[in-house]
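Question (not urgent): is this output format expected?
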Amino acid sequence: MQLLHVRCVRRTYASAVRFDSPELVTCGKSTSEVLRGWTVFKLFTYDPIVDNSLKLFSVAQRLLGERLFESLLRGTVFGQFAGGVDEEDAAKTCAKLSRKGISSVWQYSVEQDVRTDGSPGDIRRQEALYQKQNEHFLKTIELSGRYNTSVARFAAIKLTAISNTILLQRLSILLKASEATFNSLAAKSACDVHQGVPMDVIAKHYPSLLKNNEKSTLVTSDGKVTLAEWIRHLRLPWNLSLYSAILEQAGTSLPPLSDIQLEQFDGFVKRLEAIGECASSAGVRVLIDAEQTWYQPAIHHFTLHYLMPQFNTSTSTPIYNTVQAYLQSAYNTLLLDTATAKLYNFKYALKLVRGAYMVQERAEAAGNGYPSPIHPDKPSTDQSYNKAMEYLLGEVAKGRVNLMVASHNRPSVELAVEKMNELKLSPSDGSVVFGQSLGMADHLTYPLAHEGYQVNKVLPYGPIQEVLPYLSRRAQENRGIMLNAQTELQLYQNELKRRLFGSYTSS
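Got this back:
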């Protein structure tokens, strides 16, 4: 059996990329790894397997016992999509990718059950679990700094893992109500939210907002208040008390946060500070994952208005936001975000994704009687992603933004490469990087790396039993990708045939 050897090199200049290069993907892969890839992608073309993956894992464990079960998973799903069971394992995977010119986004992927019955004692137990999870995140950031060798080193975290989700939901309601209030004022005044609402209109409706406070004052040079300035003035965690007045005057009210919730709020803020400080000292860029729309306003607000102003500068971007292009509001969010970064005088950084919660978002909207916030179909989502990406690449060329193009979609990746070359953006200085999941979209990752583009694989790691819920959830969230992974399936199938019979086939 003859293996095909291809020299995988790094270039220091931008160039076109040949994505029809299966030899780049399979060079260095053992036959058992190729067989594993084909097996996993073949299994995941069956929707019932994806939907019932956790149940199937449980049945297999009972039948096989723990040792055989874990051995089976290492040879299939876990081995394909996870970086390892611990730091040592993950470091080996990181080094293997690095030899191919691929960086790793370190991600501790153990998910804890932190539900609470609401009692003070149980809430404090919950807070202790959040603190423990945050310590894992801090360790992951340090590991990325230690083992990655690229210009831009990444780690990824989820804020729902370190904060009470009911609290995030409450804060999201406040933030959405505040933004809706400003939009209403702008509409009544026939003003564009980005051009500004006259100060006298603000004073008439919300005089309390013009009072000085410790952290921010609503003062502008042109006598107008933009949406970005409005949100900055009301930014959390400092101005929580002002939201009650806004809600009351808008005819809406929510019960004030309890003493225990305020304690949780303070704990969350301290954990955020620890993340920012750790990222800055380790020289690592932290990707703050986007989540469901009932949590996302709070996640987005704390990323953009709390972490970034403290830790991002005009040259350094340790904090990355995430924008989901399947949301109909995505482009306007980017316009507001870049205006906000200019207001605070820091460089904006983000990971652009399509989005992973389509089924949940549509079900929640239908169940609660509001329009779905996501685009109706794949073509409109693709258009949204590409429009956002082109705008952001233009901002990168102006030195205002750092961007991760996180996509498994070949046309989008090809467009990004084309625009980078058109704008004369460096493929390797870290201002634009690419991202794909470990074990997926290798037909994009390896050719990009071969031509000198900085490309990253998300590297989830943790004990097998504890990472299974993460792998199952990711499989379900990425159902569309899994069911349409024909490129990967065909690639592995052709390579198996080549190794067994000595030639590629087209089917």
